[in-house]
Amino acid sequence: MGFREKYARLGERYNALEKPLDRFFCPLRKKAASFARGRVLEIGVGVGKMLPYYPKDIELHAVDAVPEMVEIARRRADELGLNARFYVMDAERLEFPGKSFDTVVSSFVFCTVSNPEKAMREIHRVLKPGRRAIFLEHTRSDCRLLNWLFLKPLDVLLGLLLDDNTLRETHLLARNYFKIEHEESHYRGIIRLLVGRKV
Q1: pTM for this structure?
Q2: Which of 44, 116, 146, 172 could form a disulfide with 109 if both were Cys (CB 3.0 to 4.6 A apart)?
Q3: Which domains does the chain have, with CATH numbers?
Q4: Among candidates 36, 98, 24, which has minimal Cα distance to 62?
Q5: Nearest to 191 by CA among 21, 16, 50
């Protein structure tokens, strides 16, 4: 069973599963969303955890590979009164023309995508020159001990449950495609916020 089937099965229960982490993640989601401007694409929108934090004046387009998640996010956007459109789409195969967006947002997505390099190329392709990509991601910690004692066991558990990989180095991959203008490391690098500009 792949990640699509696993997330589809979770549906609304995903909110309950992640609720204990909200007090850590939601302030970071709010900060990440504050960088969004203009025509915005969010990849891997999931159940819409980022939606309450976006500026009200953006034009939001959001994609996810799991139809059940897209429907939950769409309902949440309606409740929030957001100007948003939703699509069932893979991050590695974005069905948008090149140079379409002012901002691309990825929030806890690269731990799940099957081909991170291809997804990063797609983000770069659809972003307008001079505009920003925002990454809020699980990453390998700067502390080896933390990786072995905490992240490795968590990686095994989440791999079985959701096909997630919490030990990826998305922060290093992003540097290959974007000029990083802002970077924050939280919880010894377990979570990182990066803002990169397409040059």
Answers
A1: 0.84
A2: 44
A3: 3-197 (3.40.50.150)
A4: 36
A5: 21
